[in-house]
């Protein structure tokens, strides 16, 4: 298509400028100025429909990541309503995160083969159905099973979000789309406790926790309708370039068994007094992880496509970046697990009051996320250093407040400043961290690297909750039946748990230095 724009009052041929739009699919056109399209470097024009598709995709991601934290404020209510054990509370969070992480890589592979539209649609539909059954649960076992299915469904459709951004947004516009996605990740996680608290406050403790899950139903249904209309199908060109090799099922079974064997004793060990089976399970999990690594190497040598390409870990910086993702998300997602249980079970506050505590963190995350892309372009890796350092400072301050303040004097006002600082750091870190880790590998391996990072982030969340939950309940000693004794016991346990979260954050800060100083987000 050629549009001729003539300057008024001029008749020379030079007065005619041509705007050439070279179609690049139904969503993108490359803008070229002048008579020689191939010589121009003008920025691509992204269609309105592409941005509408991004809204649909991010609505699904918002829902999946909201569920990683919205449940935190409902845990004390679930515990009393369903008579759930301490281990069950950890499973509600960790089971979701673990299933989510394990589904990410194979789901991405399936999307490459059959098209990401229907993988996104199927996963989102399953997530919405599982959310309905979470709210219907009549006992803790039913709830944990429904949560695991919900996490599995989230892991199925979330990889399609990043895949579509790669397909729909070229060049520098892609960096902007990823920045928006990063902001959604940070904001959805931060807003979870507030929304959960409002629902429980409005509808009561008996049924309010069920609406924490059912809030997904209208969002899910609307997003499904929009996805069917707005998301593009797989083109013939994309289908011809898709990896047609079979899925590495043995690798998937080995890594799943390893992580479950490691996670179960971390969650159940405290409740059961750390019997022999918990130690054997931890050892077995470690051995299965070694077997998984050996299998992936052998599978690659046979010319097959492994679940996790071993060559990625030939880059020391990538290995450090993967550990960074693991430990940071272990620190980040465990903060409000600790605060929610302390605020409600220990100090006797409502779910809404517990949710309000997280508002400074949410505000900080929103502000940090909004500036992260601009600061990354100017400062490079330094933005991640600043982000993790702010998280360390915020958590250290938070720990000191819990450690030194009398439980009877503990109010949300004392937590505003440390949570705001930690939230700012979280916002600066969440959006650009995956880009920097991916930049440590060959561009041809970027897709596989992104899948590994996403899985490790969710696994880090699961491990963090398992460890923090074990420390929290293992440290919980109540020296009497009075309200002051209960508050003191829970505050001391929260301080012990928070220092572990702080340790994860300090390790994350040190690991940032393994990443490259800069990454080119324009390609």
Automatic annotation (TrEMBL):
Residues 53-520 form the Major facilitator superfamily (MFS) profile domain. Signal peptide: none annotated. The chain crosses the membrane at residues 54-75, 87-106, 118-138, 144-165, 177-199, 211-231, 247-267, 273-295, 316-343, 349-370, 382-404, 410-431, 452-473, 493-515. Its main location: membrane. The keyword Membrane applies. It is found in: Cell membrane. The keyword Transport applies. GO terms for molecular function: transmembrane transporter activity. GO terms for cellular component: plasma membrane. It is a multi-pass membrane protein. Keywords: Cell membrane, Membrane, Transmembrane, Transmembrane helix, Transport. This is Drug resistance transporter, EmrB/QacA subfamily. It comes from Agreia pratensis.
């Amino acid at each position: 298509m050629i549009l001729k724009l003539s300057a008024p009052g001029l008749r020379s041929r030079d007065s005619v400028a041509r705007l050439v739009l070279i179609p690049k699919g139904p969503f993108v056109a490359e803008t070229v100025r002048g008579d020689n399209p191939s010589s121009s470097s003008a920025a691509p024009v992204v269609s309105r429909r592409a941005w509408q598709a991004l809204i649909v995709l991010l609505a699904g991601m918002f829902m999946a990541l909201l569920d990683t934290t919205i449940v935190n404020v409902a845990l004390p209510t679930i515990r009393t309503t369903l008579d759930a054990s301490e281990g069950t509370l950890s499973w509600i969070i960790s089971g979701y995160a673990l299933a989510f992480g394990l589904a990410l890589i194979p789901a991405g592979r399936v999307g490459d083969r059959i098209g990401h539209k229907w993988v996104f649609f199927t996963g989102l539909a399953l997530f919405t159905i599982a959310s309905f059954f979470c709210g219907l649960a009549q006992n803790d076992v039913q709830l944990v099973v429904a949560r695991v299915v919900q996490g599995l469904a989230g892991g199925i459709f979330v990889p399609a979000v990043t895949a579509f951004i790669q397909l729909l947004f070229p060049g520098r516009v892609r960096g902007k789309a990823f920045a928006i996605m990063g902001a959604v990740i940070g904001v959805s996680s931060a807003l979870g406790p507030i929304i959960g608290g409002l629902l429980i406050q409005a509808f009561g403790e008996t049924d309010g926790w069920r609406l924490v899950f059912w809030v997904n139903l209208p969002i899910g249904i609307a997003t499904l309708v929009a996805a069917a209309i707005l998301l593009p199908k797989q083109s013939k060109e994309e289908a011809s370039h898709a990896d047609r090799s079979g899925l590495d099922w043995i690798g998937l079974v080995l890594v799943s068994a390893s992580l479950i064997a490691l996670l179960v004793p971390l969650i159940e060990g405290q409740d059961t007094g750390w019997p022999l089976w918990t130690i054997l399970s931890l050892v077995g999990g470690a051995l299965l992880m070694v077997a998984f690594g050996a299998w992936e190497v052998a599978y690659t040598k046979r010319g097959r496509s492994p679940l996790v390409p071993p060559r990625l870990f030939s880059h020391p910086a990538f290995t450090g970046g993967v550990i960074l993702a693991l430990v940071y998300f272990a620190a980040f997602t465990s903060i409000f697990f600790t605060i929610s249980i302390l605020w409600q079970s220990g100090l006797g506050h409502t779910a809404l009051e517990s949710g309000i505590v997280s508002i400074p963190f949410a505000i900080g995350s929103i502000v940090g996320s909004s500036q992260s892309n601009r600061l990354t372009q100017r400062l490079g890796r330094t933005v991640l250093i600043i982000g993790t350092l702010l998280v360390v400072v915020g958590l250290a301050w938070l720990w000191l407040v819990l450690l030194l303040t009398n439980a009877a004097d503990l109010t949300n006002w004392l937590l505003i400043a440390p949570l705001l600082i930690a939230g700012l750091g979280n916002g600066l870190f969440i959006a650009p961290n995956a880009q920097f880790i991916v930049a440590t590998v060959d561009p041809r391996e970027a897709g596989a690297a992104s899948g590994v990072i996403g899985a490790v982030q969710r696994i880090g969340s699961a491990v963090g909750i398992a460890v923090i939950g074990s420390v929290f309940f293992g440290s919980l000693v109540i020296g009497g039946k009075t309200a002051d004794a209960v508050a003191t016991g829970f505050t001391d346990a929260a301080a012990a748990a928070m220092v572990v979260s702080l340790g994860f954050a300090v390790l994350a800060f040190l690991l940032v230095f393994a990443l490259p100083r800069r990454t080119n987000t324009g390609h």
